[in-house]
Automatic annotation (TrEMBL):
It catalyses: L-cysteinyl-[protein] + hexadecanoyl-CoA = S-hexadecanoyl-L-cysteinyl-[protein] + CoA. Residues 131-250 form the Palmitoyltransferase DHHC domain. It comes from the Eukaryota. This is Palmitoyltransferase. The DHHC domain is required for palmitoyltransferase activity. Keywords: Acyltransferase, Lipoprotein, Membrane, Palmitate, Transferase, Transmembrane, Transmembrane helix. It comes from Cristinia sonorae.
Amino acid sequence: MASTTACSSGRVFRCFKWLERLGDRVTGAAGPVFVTLAVVMIGTGVVCFFDVIQPGLPFRWLTTPLCLLIVFNLFMHYYYVCTVSPGFIDDPPHTPKSGLMWARKRKSAARSKPLTGVRWSDGTTITKATMSKCNKCATWRPERAHHCRICKKCVLKYDHHCPCVGLHNERHFVLFLLYLVVASYCFVAFGWTYVLTALGWFDIPWLHRSPPIAFLLIYILSAVLGLAVTVMAAWHLWGIACAETSVEAQDHEHYRKVAKGRGEDFVNSYDLGKRKNLELFFNVGKDGYPLWTLLFPFRVEPYTDGHSWARTQGLERHKGVRIGEELTDEEEEY
Ligand SMILES: [Zn+2]
Ligand SMILES: [Zn+2]
């Protein structure tokens, strides 16, 4: 009986794995299609907004630049998510850049002495990452790097692939989600009176260039997408506040169980408290970039080069999980 169960669960696992591989192949091949579709959808939404809703907004001297700023952030962050390398292990070493789109660091940060591989680290304990060999591409990689099955390479602080998100573009990914939430809510909140006009409830003629049906479809899409992306953004922000990537959130769940089985508590050594974790992720606050850099689509260096990590005082590694108990990329696939 037990062997039958084991056999059938093995089959279920294999089936899942096959489906996952198929999903990977489809996602990998359809990546450019998804990207084009997203740009077309967001672009249509923006055109509809500026054609129908924006001319009727109050205080246009204030609301017009604000709306333009949201649109600018939306497109630029998406562009960066798709074009900035997430931090592949074989990328050439990252050097601090400057230019029109690069934010300037705080004066205090500019004065502080840069440590090897870590730009701003005053008041934070930074320790060198442990190295391990990837058993898929055989490269040596620092902790928090994982192998992306679609890119077939190891990525620094790998989060997920859709497109590939890691250390160097994760900030753009999260800000894109947040600006998408804001944009969808603006569309839904300021557009509802036009929905009634488009449906013919009032005897007002539809005087806009966009057809009413297109406006209605975009409105429904904004409402549904707005809710879905809110959940996604909230989940990511919670992960950031807990100092966990999507991969680590799953791993830590497993480590918690292992530690609990021994009567111990699992402690994530990257967790410096919600506020500090968020500050380090967005690289703002003391010794980072000014907070207002979040309002513009600037390029910002991460606080680390991915070879050193900020840790809780006194912890060299996670508490509650022993050496050799860490999950490998294969085990994470299940
Ligand atoms: Zn690898
Ligand atoms: Zn990838």
